[in-house]
Amino acid sequence: MRVRIPIPRLPPLPIVPTPRTLVLLTLLAPIAVVVAATAPAAWVIAPAAGLALLLLVLVDGWLAGKLVNFAYHVPADAEVGQEAHIRVEAEIERDSDAALPEAALGFDARLGEGGAASFLLQPTGEPGMFAGHGVAVPQRRGPGELHDLWLRWRGPLGLAVRQKHVALDAGIRVWPDLSPVRSPVLQSFLRDSQFGLVARRIRGEGTQFEALSEYEPGMDRRRIDWKASARHTSLYARENEAERDNQIVFAFDCGQSMIEPVDGLPRIDRAVSAALTAAYVALKGGDKVSLFGFADHPQLMTPFVTDTRAFHRLQSAAAELDYTPREPNFTLALATLTARLKRRSLIVLFSDFSDPTSAQLMVESVERLVRHHLVIFVTMVDTELEELTTTEPDTLGDIAVAVGADSLARQRQLVLQRLRRMGVNVIEAPYDTIGYRLIDLYLETKRAEAIG
After folding, report:
1. Is 218 left (phi over 0), alpha (psi -120 to 50) or beta?
2. How far apart are the first and last CA of the chain?
């Protein structure tokens, strides 16, 4: 969105003194006291000096120039955790070479920490034209608003500034981060014939029957179809095809533990980015993908997407996953998911836990899910907990904190070990590697024909 706002020449913009002017006025006070004490007849020097400084401020403000017009350009969309650049242009009519103009933006805290960004405007090469970029780094998905823009520019003496404030009516839609999908590493991997625009049908692997062919020496004897060979009085072997059209569900816990930040972003946003990366690979591999979100109750479940051309539907659905500061109801959520699935599927569950009670409820619900489906449990390494357990304590309080953190870490590992014994594939890794770990495990599972 680009908006250009003409500025009327009348009335002129106000002239505001700078901190330098205030410092000079402060220095004049002791001088006035000294003059009054040593030469009372010369008292007029102090007010004369003050008036002279005021006159310099007015002249400096006049030399700063007039704002003719300015424009701002706000991108319509941005991705969480990625920079969004807001461009501001200003045309200032002045003859002197004063300091560069400054701009400041005020926006929703969703669009950046602190809700503000300030920056300098640089000359564009055209007379009186200046431009610059403010950077906002969205912290959460959803619509974010920009509500204020300030411009100010100094005079050549640095004693006065002109300033302009405008209330903005602009917004940025914040989407999930898809930078891993666009990464050169993943794109190079997807150029392989198995995941290209036209996926190659892989014969000789898998369990899905494709065709019969005459048996030739060197073939695996286990592939011989004895019934077909008996009918044709010649040996025939089965050619199988790697199974496609598997159902994959990415389930997100949107509750209390998943909205805690990891390196500046909520865990749920890290999970969504990893899931969309794996979902894109799964769609390339010919499988069907759906998203399921829940907290204290189920939030959404998308229809199964079968083609990468419909990937934007998954992105839009993931953007609607809410941040819910309540404990998740695993029993209700996973029972609802099981009821909606009509065939065996691969379910990738993104969740976390901070206390044994919630972990116990989660394990019981996952245990019922494993009876009918293949489950992958994905959780992020708790770096804060690791730091508390490994940092050398200095006081008795530090020792108590370290002991408590170590107890929580042990309970966490016991829960993950219990999930593994139930047959759940567990991924515990830093947030920036879970996406690729998940892709590796998905491909390994697919090659083993363990989903269908």
Report:
1. left
2. 48
Is there a contact between 427 and 434 (Cβ–Cβ < 8 Å)? yes
**430: preceding bond cis by omega (within 30 degrees):** no
Beta-strand runs (E) in 302-448: 346-350, 374-380, 425-429
Residue type, 12: P
Under CATH, domain 179-186+244-447 is a member of which superfamily? von Willebrand factor, type A domain (3.40.50.410)
pLDDT confidence of residue 96: 64
Strands (E), 76-159: 77-79, 84-93, 102-107, 116-120, 122-123, 129-136, 142-154
Tokens standing for residue 320? 């609607």
Report the alpha-carbon distance of residue 398 to residue 404 in Å, rounded: 10
Task: Tally Cβ neighbours within 10 Å of residue 246.
Answer: 23
What is the C-alpha R_g of the chain? 33
Is 402 a residue whose pLDDT tops 60? Answer: yes
pLDDT tens track for 118-139: 999 998 888 888 999 999 999 9
Closest by CA position to 380, among listed 259, 223, 245: 259
Distance CA 28, CA 30 (A): 6
CATH number for the domain running over 2-175: 2.60.40.10
The CA-CA-CA angle for residues 396, 398, 399, to 5°, reads 65
Q: Which residues contact 92 (CB under 8 A, 6 or more apart)?
A: 65, 66, 67, 68, 101, 128, 130, 153
Confidence of residue 289 (pLDDT cuts 50, 70, 90): very high
Question: 271 to each of 128, 198, 255, 324, how far by Cα in Å?
Answer: 48, 29, 13, 15
> What is the reported pLDDT for 218?
67
Residue 179 is encoded by which pair of tokens? Answer: 């930078």
pLDDT tens by residue, 63-97: 888 888 888 899 999 999 999 999 999 988 876 66
Could you tell me where in the chain the CATH 3.40.50.410 domains are found? Answer: 179-186+244-447
Q: Per the structure block, which two tokens stand in for 408?
A: 């929580």
Query: With contact defined as beta carbons under 8 Å apart, do 70 and 86 qualify?
Result: no
**Residue 164: band (very low, low, confident or very high) from pLDDT cuts 50, 70, 90:** confident
In the chain, CATH 2.60.40.10 covers: 2-175
**Which residues 6+ apart lie within 8 Å of 303 measured at CB?**
290
Q: Which amino acid is at 369?
A: L
With a CB cutoff of 8 Å and minimum separation 6, the contacts of 104 are 116, 117, 118, 119, 134, 148, 149, 150
